[in-house]
Specification:
The chain is of the alpha+beta class. The chain has a single domain, classed as Nucleoside Triphosphate Pyrophosphohydrolase (Alpha-Beta Complex). The chain contains three helices and seven strands, in the order ββββαβββαα. Strands 1, 2, 3, 4, 5, 6 and 7 form a seven-stranded mixed sheet that branches. The chain is globular and about 35 Å long.
Amino acid sequence: MHTSVGAIIKSNEKILMIDRATYPFGWACPAGHVDDGEKPEQALIRETKEETNLRIKKFRQIIHEFVEWNVCNRGVRGHDWYVYEIEEWSGELNRNKRETKNINWFTINEIRKLKLEEIWQYWFEKLHIL
């Protein structure tokens, strides 16, 4: 079992989304695995910085759930997810070209038209975003 974190970052009625360059493909919020010896909150800060260049200053956990069907690029099925809403952040947006094909801010209506990564489709529906 792997542990994963995700960051929902909002600004001006839009949500920050990345188009993954590696499996699982699709548009997603910044997310990634928790490394050995790392706390979910530490992974949240690290993964967001790696994928977006943004520095998280304040956040709150909105989901903690084990998702049995979620498969990652390491072939592991089942992830213990921690999803956070980012309340305060700083820095200049700059995508990680190795991990992402694109990065952008989208309205809810625009997100409805995107091909989302499966787990993010699940989270957005569960949170009544979509």
